[in-house]
Specification:
The protein is α+β, with helices and mostly antiparallel strands. It folds into 3 domains: 145 residues, Jelly Rolls, CATH 2.60.120.260; 202 residues; 136 residues, Histidine kinase-like ATPase, C-terminal domain (Heat Shock Protein 90). The strands form 4 sheets. A 6-stranded antiparallel beta sheet has the order 3-2-5-11-8-9, with no helix packed on it. Strands 14-15-16-18-17 form a 5-stranded mixed beta sheet, covered by helices on one side. Helix 2 packs parallel to helix 10 and helix 5 packs antiparallel against helix 7.
């Protein structure tokens, strides 16, 4: 059976030998590609003049004519002051050039590398300089310099070129071979070299700071992932250190600027250790605490050292310590990558190998074991690091989105299941509630019919069977039963909270009785607000109370006028109520009169619906007030 190529590759990669050989090959390819930078050479034109045999004079003169003739000695370019043992801060170079016929095109002088600043003279005339020669000295140690030669300045015979080089700190100056040629050809070489040495680093630095800021904002949103914060700090520290490469006119003294450049690269290394630990999800206080406890105080201690001790400490202690810290980061990443079989860590190991390779080259340049004209390379590894880590972040972000999407799908499914279940339970509860309400309403109607109309019918039937009832008595009893039935119907037809309508129906029902008894009803019902929890049960209780009041007035009070009012007001304690009042001008209730069954029922009904019933009686009539609360208890 033939297997697809992908299956064969996964089988091979899953084996120990396949995994090992694959990643060793990735390491080798990464380091091979990274090493190609060592073969970079400035693309100089073929028809140029290269001046290497020169004279030098260690004098602090401002102009070539100020230099005595007897101080000149011979040397060759490129020239490294450290190897020559020159401790001066200012050095002059002189080169002689013989021309049979001066060129008829614009020429120029190119200085590919100088440390720290330079100016150029031709036949005593200043061609230009790289900036200020006083403290702080212009920093052109990574910046190529190009000086154009005006037409007519080159002459037949001997031409003398003077180059002034200013070093800060003293004794660290460098000057590469001088290149002479046509301006157009040298300008093209200058632009290429400038882009490689300066512009590319400016681009990388800008990206570093932007990415550092974005990662910092991402960490601010997700503070639980602290490694984002440490990565942001490390990247910003690295980007800040790169200012030392392309800023020519520094805003501080050279000593303070050098201190800033040295500590930022140190902080980058220290923070990288903590970042690595958090990225791996581990804590190493025995490493992190001493690292910070020694690194931070030492970085500030450097401010107070004199120049000689300061630069000696940087070369002999600070740089080696930074290199050891970087080596620890690489080794630990590599060990964890192989132990965990983690692809992300393997790529970080490959990236770290490139960074360490460039760091080793730069250390060799610093200590004089590699060509200083090549410059420093470690800043280029930032582009590789950012690319790899950006891929890792995107991969993790995509993985997180997939997990969130899957969780959302599962959540939606579970929510839908719960919704259906709740809906079923709601229908069951609603059905049970309807059944309960129907049962309660049935019981209420049964009780009301039994107490009201049922009692009247039973009494009437008993009177008829006993032969004691006359037709008028039977007719009155049946009418009372019908009134009671109408009362119950009115309470059921009432709209919710509509007390005004309820009182209107009561007025319509009671008016025939009042008219037949020659009793006048004076009516005053104001706008009544909705009453909380007011339904058929409450309505029936109110109607029965009013029915009992009217019945008592017609039977006992001998009144000819009844006043009925309803309005909103407040009790003495400030509680809002709707007060229904019935007042008659009858003879009132005698003090010796014992409270009967009707009045007791009225009080019981008022209590049942949470209302307050007051009965005040005197010789001029009786007032019954019923206060219904507007705030639910």
């Amino acid at each position: 059976m033939a297997y697809p190529a992908g299956h064969l590759w996964l089988t091979f990669y899953s084996s120990k030998a396949g995994y090992t050989s694959t990643w060793l090959l990735v390491y080798a390819l990464t380091l091979t590609l990274a090493s190609t930078i060592f073969f970079y050479e400035i693309p100089l034109p073929n028809d140029r003049l290269t001046l290497t045999e020169v004279e030098f004079a260690a004098v602090d003169a401002e102009h070539p004519e100020d230099i005595p003739e007897d101080v000149w000695g011979k040397t060759t370019l490129p020239n490294d002051w450290r190897k020559e043992g020159n401790k001066e801060g200012n050095l002059w170079y002189r080169a002689r050039m013989e021309l049979n016929v001066p060129p008829n095109r614009l020429w120029a002088i190119l200085i590919p590398t100088v440390k720290m600043n330079a100016s150029a003279y031709l036949n005593g005339e200043l061609l230009g300089d790289g900036g200020d020669f006083s403290d702080p000295v212009a920093r052109n140690w990574m910046t190529p310099l190009l000086f154009s030669i005006p037409n007519g300045l080159l002459r037949p015979g001997e031409n003398i070129i003077h180059i002034r080089v200013k070093s800060d700190p003293p004794g660290t100056g460098q000057l590469s071979a001088l290149q002479l040629g046509t301006y157009d050809d040298l300008f093209a070489a200058y632009e290429t070299h400038y882009f490689f040495r300066i512009t590319s680093i400016q681009i990388i630095t800008t990206i570093l700071l932007i990415v550092g800021g974005l990662i910092a904002m991402f960490w601010f949103i997700r503070r639980e992932d602290s490694y984002y914060g440490y990565f942001s700090l490390a990247v910003i520290a690295w980007g800040t250190h790169n200012f030392n490469i392309f800023i020519v006119d520094i805003p501080t003294s050279t000593r303070l600027w050098d201190w800033f450049a040295y500590i930022t690269i140190g902080y980058y290394s220290f923070i990288s250790v903590i970042f690595l630990h958090r990225f791996l999800g581990i804590y190493r206080p025995r490493i992190e605490i001493p690292l910070i406890a020694l690194g931070l105080p030492t970085s500030f201690m450097l401010l107070f050292l004199n120049d000689e001790i300061f630069y000696a400490f940087i070369l002999k202690v600070w740089y080696p310590a930074i290199f050891v810290v970087g080596l620890y980061v690489l080794i630990y990443t590599c060990v964890e990558a192989w132990r965990r079989h983690n692809t992300e860590l393997q790529f970080l190991t490959a990236t770290g190998s490139t960074t360490l390779l460039y760091a080793m080259h730069d250390m060799m340049v610093i200590y004089g074991y590699a060509n200083w004209e090549d410059g420093y390379y470690i800043q280029y590894s930032a582009a590789i690091l950012l690319t790899v880590f950006s891929i890792i972040l995107l991969r993790r972000f995509a993985h997180s989105l997939n997990e969130i999407e899957l969780l959302n799908q599962n959540l939606e499914k579970r929510v839908e299941e719960k919704r259906l279940k709740l809906e079923m339970n709601y229908h069951k509860l609603r059905q049970m509630e309807n059944e309960r309400v129907v049962a309660e309403e049935r019981d209420r109607l049964t009780r009301d019919m039994h107490d009201g109309m049922g009692g009247n019918l039973v009494s009437t039937l008993a009177m008829i069977e006993a032969g004691q009832a006359s037709m008028p008595d039977i007719s009155a009893a049946l009418k009372e039963s019908l009134d009671d039935l109408r009362l119950m119907i009115d309470s059921m037809d009432m709209e919710e909270d509509d007390l005004s309508t309820l009182l209107g129906m009561f007025r319509m029902r009671i008016s025939p009785k009042l008219n037949s008894s020659q009793t006048t009803l004076k009516w005053h019902v104001e706008d009544i607000p909705p009453i909380p929890s007011f339904g058929p049960r409450e309505a029936l209780h109110i109607l029965r109370i009013l029915q009992e009041v009217m019945s008592n007035i017609l039977k006992h009070a001998q009144a000819d006028t009844i006043y009925l009012s309803a309005r909103q007001c407040r009790l003495k304690d400030g509680k809002p109520v709707v007060k229904i009042e019935v007042l008659d001008n009858g003879k009132g209730i005698s003090k010796s009169h014992k409270e009967g069954h009707g009045l007791k029922n009225m009080r019981h009904r008022a209590l049942d619906i949470g209302a307050i019933l007051h009965i005040n009686s005197g010789p001029s009539g009786t007032k019954v007030s019923l206060a219904l609360p507007l705030i639910a208890n």
